[in-house]
Amino acid sequence: MPADQHQVLVFDVNETLSDLAPLRGRFEDVGAPGHLLPTWFAGVLRDGFALTASGAYADFTSVAHDGLRTLLSGLEGWTGDEEAAARHILDGLCQLDVHPDVPHSVRKLSDAGYRLTAMTNGSIALTERLLDAAGVLDCFEALSDVHGPRCWKPAPAAYHYAVERVGVGPEQAILVAVHPWDIDGARRVGLDGAWLRRGASVYPRTMTPPSFSAQDLEELVRVLVADQ
């Protein structure tokens, strides 16, 4: 078992475990530039956060679909079918793979005694498919999404929901995420945070700093398992 007080690792999913890069090709399939992928995804997060801040809720797919229709309709010279194009791009979510460092690293963390769970702003169904395809679904004792608390991370209730589902307090868990806003949100409610840089080099000064920092999951394994 882990030597310190941490028992549970709570994994974010989108971009932390999953590689969204293949969706660029889906944009290109419908005649839109692939570089719109990060713009669209950032807009999905913005709108999901906004709904949560106002006390409302919509699921990831609904927000993502609206975002695609808005983005594509504003493209100069684009004359495609917004609905069909949005569906084609979103269908790509069901075909994503994990980052190459994920399968071996997840299994090593599980073998080291950490209890693993996931909390996503996306859906349990997509998370289950992703982890099953990677051969590590059996390493996770629970999968959660924001439909349960009906609010998106980084709302405090989302993190409380994730740890309550596995029967631990926030102080017994570490959120593993690539997004600084997610680390900040988790740390503000008592979880520790492990930031996966995945090529990024700067963490925002305005946000609560991570408890651990690693380039990828392989490095995080060395940090967490070496501490035992």
TrEMBL record:
The answer to whether the entry has keyword Ion transport is no
What GO terms are given for molecular function? Answer: hydrolase activity, acting on acid halide bonds, in C-halide compounds
What UniProt keywords apply to this chain's record, in alphabetical order? Hydrolase
| InterPro entries in UniProt | 2-HAD, HAD-like_sf, HAD-SF_hydro_IA, HAD_sf, PGP-like_dom2, S-2-haloacid_dehalogenase
Is Glycosyltransferase tagged as a keyword? no
Among the Pfam families in the record, one is: Hydrolase
NCBIfam families cross-referenced by the UniProt entry: HAD_type_II
Question: Per the similarity annotation, which family is this?
Answer: Belongs to the HAD-like hydrolase superfamily. S-2-haloalkanoic acid dehalogenase family.
Specify the protein name.
Answer: Haloacid dehalogenase type II
Lineage, please? Bacteria, Bacillati, Actinomycetota, Actinomycetes, Kitasatosporales
